[in-house]
Please model this.
Amino acid sequence: MPTHVLVAGLLAALGFTWSRAEAATPSRGTITDGSVSWDFTPVVGGTLVDVGILDTCPLLLCDNYDLRVELPVPAAIFYQTMTAKLSFQYTWSSTLPTGLDIYAIGPNGDHHGPGSPNTISIGPGEEDLTITDPAEGVWHVRSVASLAPLPTAAHVVATLAISLRLEPPPTRACTGTLLLPGVPEPSVGSDPTSVTAGDFNGDGKLDLAVTNGGFNTVSVLLGNGDGTFQAAVTYLTGSGPASVTSEDFNGDGKLDLAVAVFGSQDGPSYVSVLLGNGDGTFQAAVTYAAGSRPNSVTSGDFNGDGKLDLAVANSNLGPPPARDSVSVLLGNGDGTFQAAVSYSAGTAPGSVTSGDFNGDGKPDLVVANFDSNTVSVLLGNGDGTFQAPVGYLAGASPSSVTSGDFNGDGKPDLVVANYNSSTVSVLLGNGDGTFQAAASYDVAGDFAASVTSGDLNGDGRLDLAVANGSTVSVLLGTGDGTFQGAVNYATGPGPSSVTGADFNRDGKLDLVTVNRPHNDVSILLNAGCLP
Model:
């Protein structure tokens, strides 16, 4: 059975099988602090014998040891990029001039050694051999007498110390998984499309709001503060709710909801606003006309009056100018909104976010355009109006957009989930409202539907989480605007939306997805690194 070992906070496993069990004392041992040592019967070799590295040494010339190495899989080193190193330290003491060499043959037949320094001496001697990123499997270790006067056993006592370590050492105790077994996946309504988080009842525990396209409702799931949620309570929104956001729209200190309602084939399209009562319940929806077939909604103070406004991305269905646009509804501060004003975007806008992309203190808008494979940037004038859109290429079928400072230069950048290319595009900001050409990263899953950003591993750098296929892909940020390869974590099938928040109050960013085919929510608790 393999011996399980805790190495610098990460679980690795080493099992040892000796071809000469009588030569090692003990024949098995537990790694402590990354290393273990054995005293073994000294080699017996002839004078000036140099057998080199052989797949199998004659027992009279060298000792043969077999070592099984089991390393953490890449997903188990989820929070930190590290290099595994397998090291052998061969030490001895002799009364005659002696040289002992250490060799290792990997599971794939690759030869390593001799170690260094390769010296012949009387008294203490040492030779070290380190293999970087050792392959998993059985390693054949050979201790060879390059110079050992007979009889070796009379004048040499040798020790082989074996260690496995990770460099750089982990700075946090990471388990290597986000999803903890036993966390229930609460049911919501039919065809869930979007999710947002907020404290809707003022108890200090985060709750969820989920739009249900099939039931024409929004479900509210109150949080228990441990990552679990109570049964959903639903509220009518109108036909085809597609997106939800939460803010305090009437200034009473209680979170409200705004829902983009796609509408039925022949029916109207609008935004539904549900004012919160502060106890986790909501008032009946009040609707406001938007553009044609709204898919996404966000909020911000677009005219600088201290009252929150709404921006809605409208798809390419319906007549112009309401189609292929973003509608802005200025807020009155009491939870009501003025008539929508629409601005052109690309073709089939499906997602909208806001931010100050040119550093003038005025909120701007960015829209992901599904059919034109672009993002449109609309700079704000600060009075609730916006300039003409400027487009930037993304991937195939952009479905979601978010912003953040991914390279630490103080300028907001963009990241776009591309549904049909299963990639994310990162567009670094120049700070003047323009953006550099997109760099793409594979999410290693099908149909990138939604993206969010946050510091998932507590290193102060923004990371990405992308809902796709039946997984959420996590791409850790390097802090310079680039990202590591995606690591996927299972969710329910068909996740359509993902967001991050600390649902169990442990100081770590967790994830939640809504899964359309199963009509449920997947909670992925962050069991990884503390900040």
User: Anything to note?
Assistant: The two ends are 35 Å apart (CA to CA). The chain has no helices and 37 strands.
